[in-house]
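Deliverable D2.4 — example input (structure tokens):
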């Protein structure tokens, strides 16, 4: 029985304004500058996969954990700067809060899981009235490990008091699909951000919608069934 929906933020709840390509490139360049071999990175590597590769490399080659943590903190500052600029122009996808409100009226718990940092999300919440529409708004700073790791979704399930088979994750990106799949949580794709519908389908989405209106319709159908 479906009890909770967790949403990604950028490209799902808000219009995608993050300079993702720049953020990925800056992350890679930082690690390369500090001695990571560029040939170990692939074009498809994002922020999380680049960081995971860099961590394995540096810790396996004599870098102390405290030094790695310092590098990780400096990358976080780079990302937060990008996110802060994007937060200043954050805009909700049209109709989002009305849809989320109707989902809640259908008896669902709702939450947000984003890889954005806390400072940028707080800035967005000062500009956009989203706080009262979600039971939890969790950033990468509250997640044990960021997406594509499943930790953030599993933490939200625990906090909401639901089982993984009672929750759905809704997102627009491959990293969202990966996190849901690893957590054993059903993934619904929305083609409102950076990833085409067929790619989301191939990544493991059980359903792909063109907008959140489709998510609402599916929730209402499932609510009537139960």
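Example output (designed residues):
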């Amino acid at each position: 029985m479906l009890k909770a929906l967790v949403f990604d933020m950028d490209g799902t709840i808000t219009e995608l304004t993050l300079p993702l390509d720049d953020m990925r490139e800056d992350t890679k360049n930082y690690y390369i500058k500090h001695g990571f071999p560029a040939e170990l990175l692939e074009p498809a590597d994002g922020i999380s996969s680049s960081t995971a590769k860099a961590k394995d490399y540096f810790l396996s080659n004599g870098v102390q954990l405290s030094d790695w943590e310092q590098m990780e903190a400096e990358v976080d500052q780079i990302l937060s700067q990008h996110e802060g600029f994007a937060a200043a122009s954050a805009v909700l996808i049209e109709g989002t809060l009305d849809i989320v409100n109707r989902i809640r009226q259908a008896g669902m718990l709702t939450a947000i899981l984003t890889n954005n940092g806390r400072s940028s999300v707080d800035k967005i919440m000062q500009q956009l009235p989203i706080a009262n529409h979600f039971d939890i708004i969790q950033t990468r700073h509250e997640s044990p490990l960021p997406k594509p790791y499943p930790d953030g979704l599993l933490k939200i399930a625990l906090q909401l008091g639901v089982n993984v088979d009672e929750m759905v994750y809704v997102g627009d990106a491959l990293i969202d699909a990966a996190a849901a799949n690893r957590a054993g949580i059903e993934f619904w794709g929305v083609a409102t951000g950076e990833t085409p519908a067929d790619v989301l389908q191939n990544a493991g989405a059980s359903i792909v919608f063109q907008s959140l209106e489709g998510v609402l319709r599916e929730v209402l159908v499932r609510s009537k069934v139960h």
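Residues 190 and 209 are 5 Å apart (CA to CA).
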